[in-house]
Every structure is written in structure tokens, then in C-alpha cells.
Amino acid sequence: MATLSPSNSPKVLKHKGSSRRRALSHLPPYPSQESHDAALNAIRSFLKATTSYDAFPVSFRLIVLDTKLSVKKALQCLLLNGVVSAPLWNSDRSRFAGMLTVLDIIHLIQYYYRTATYDYAETDVETFKLESLRDIEKKLNVEPPPLLREHPSSTLYDAAKLLIQTHARRLPLLDNDTETGHEVIVSVLTQYRLLKFISINCTKELQHLHLSLRKLKIGTYITPQQSPDGSRSYHPIATASLDSRVFDVVHMFSERSISAVPILDDDGVVLNLYETVDVITLVRTGVYQSLDLTIAEALKQRSPDFPGVVICTASDSLGTLLQLIKKRRVHRLVVVEGERGRLLGIITLSDVLRYVIGEIAIGIGEEVAEQKPADDANSPSKAPPPP
């Protein structure tokens, strides 16, 4: 489990059920709000002067899936290429048809699990087409993902605003073929790619983002209270234990449109994190009954190269967090407190991007910003950080 910590180099702390690693964290003795705000404004100016095309890596590959493809073959394609999402293409109409994400597969699994056809899920998925996934969402009464798109020449600032306004984690970049007039999928801009681009190109500004995450109110934090049965509550964050069934967590993924759930012990200590990609690992061989496993049993089947769970404290700085994103692939951080690491909150890349762009700039309160979150946060509601 990787973490942020004041030390000369990352280290691994032994912890039952996981390992936790802490990265560099430096806070100046007298943090200045003025220098922090100036650095933030400089980053925003940089994004307004930079296009999405500029954020493309020097070399990359793009996986595009035809909507006529079966879900099983599409899933195999994602796994073989080491990606968790891909643009969809409607070959009948020669146009972009949205994105396939892990959450789509989660919805499909939940649909089969709830119906009498669950025992035949493996056979059905052999022929079930990607174009039918939206019908599953309607039957489950979950919000369909927004059909987003942007031009590669749009500014990163505008692209970031669109990501935040629609609660999306990725933004397809489309152009038009001048000869045929058809749409062309050029690339996909993710929140991670955008934040990493900032951390690489704004190193001077990052040095001044030294105010703590607690002070900046970045993330979702638990509201201290007890459940009706007297047990400890971690509202509004969805949590599970090692004894929880995989499907119970899958239900949380689908119902709340989230992509990860912290695994806690009886004292609220963070033991691990169960993610949507872990479910895909279980069902990739067609063993759908494995959803009845406990989380403890399912974690034993996790790939040995699992990168770990990134944790931090509310006292760590935004600059440190962005430096970590530059060094390794990070999708979320679990905020902990105390020596044992009790759960305090969760910080997603959406939270970080929302703060960097600014709530006024992205139009918080507008209708588009009130859509149900999709696959980016642990909870649709936000609780303030502890004092």
C-alpha cells in the first residue's frame, strides 16, 4: 500500500493484509496562501494556452471496439492490451458511439446476477453485443454515461472543465476526415494524463502548492456517526470488510457508480482496496460464480504485480500529491489518520482536478454539474474534511 510520508525515500511499512509505501512530503515552515494562489493561477493560465493535442504522449496506441463485437471478445481485448476502457465505433453509421469502461461490465454482471438467467451468463456473454449494454443500464435504472467528445485543438482548460462538469474520467478526442466527412477518433484524454501533464510541465508552480489537503478541502471525508445497529458508520464513503462477499461490493460499484471500496477491519483500519478491475480479473475466465467469494478469498487471486493502495494524511500537500502522480500511475488516494491508519477519507483524481480548475470556472451549481457521478468517486456526496 503506497503512501505519502516525510522520508528520504519511499519505504514499505508492514501491515496485515497489505503493504503501504510512503513517498516524499515536504511542507515549508510558513506556508503562504498568496504564493499558493499565484501558483494555482499560473497553472490555469498554462492550461488555457495549451491544447489537448499537446498532452499526447510521444508514442501511444489506441484501441477502438466495434459495437457489433461481443462483450467477451471486447473484454479479452482490454485485458490483452492492459487497458480498462476503449472508444466504441458504430460501423453501420461510421461514427463514434461512446466509451466502453469497466463499469459497463460491472452493470452487466449485476444484471445477470439479479435475473434467473445468471446460470447461463457465460453462454449469453459469448453472443451479447456491446451495442446492447445501454439496454442493461435502463433495466438496472442506472444513469448512462454521457456521450462526450472534444476536438484535439481544444484547450486543456476547456477539456478539464468538461471532464469535471460531466463527472467523467476520460474524454474522447475526435476530428473529422476532410475527404469523407466521417468522424475520426484521435485519442482519449484521461484525468490521470491531464494531471500528469501538469505535474511534468509546472514543476516550479508545484513547489508553491504547499498548503495541506485538509486546508484546501480536497476529497470526501467520513462524517462521525453510528449506524442504527450501533456499529461504526463511515458515511458517505462505501466500505467493506474481508468477510464481505464480492457481489455485495459489485452492487456498491453499480448502484453508486464508483470504482473502488476501502477494505477495513473492525477498528476502521484500512487493510486494502477492492477495485472494479479486480472483479474483471475474477470473471475473465467465465467463472461468474466466483462473485460469491469473500473479499479475502478474491484478493488471493489478485495479480502479484498489483501496484498497491496509495494512502496519505490530511496534512500532506497538494504539491506532494501532484509530484506522486508524475512518478507513478495513481487513480485515488485513501486518507488515513493515526499510527494504525484508520480511514478518514478518499481523494480521487476528480477531486484534485476540480480544485485545480476552480469551482467557479467549471460552473458548480449548473445543471450539467448536477448529474450523477460516473466511475470516479466513492460517493456522490461530499463531506467536509475534519478540522
Give a quick summary of the entry.
This protein has helices at 33-48, 71-80, 102-114, 121-127, 133-140, 156-165, 191-201, 203-206, 213-216, 246-256, 276-283, 295-299, 318-327, 349-357, 359-362; strands at 2-4, 11-15, 18-23, 65-66, 85-90, 95-101, 170-176, 183-190, 220-221, 225-226, 232-233, 260-264, 270-275, 311-312, 332-337, 342-348. With 387 residues, it is of the alpha+beta class. The chain has a four-stranded mixed β-sheet with strand order 9-16-15-14.
Please provide a written account of the structure.
The protein is of the alpha+beta class and 387 residues long. The protein has a domain at 2-50 and 197-370: Roll (CBS-domain), CATH 3.10.580. It is 34% helix and 20% strand. The protein contains 15 helices and 16 strands. The chain has helices at 33-48, 71-80, 102-114, 121-127, 133-140, 156-165, 191-201, 203-206, 213-216, 246-256, 276-283, 295-299, 318-327, 349-357, 359-362, and strands at 2-4, 11-15, 18-23, 65-66, 85-90, 95-101, 170-176, 183-190, 220-221, 225-226, 232-233, 260-264, 270-275, 311-312, 332-337, 342-348. The strands form six sheets. The protein has a four-stranded mixed beta sheet. A hairpin with a 2-residue loop joins strand 2 and strand 3. Helix 3 (102-114) crosses helix 5 (133-140). It is flat and about 60 Å long. This is CBS-domain-containing protein.
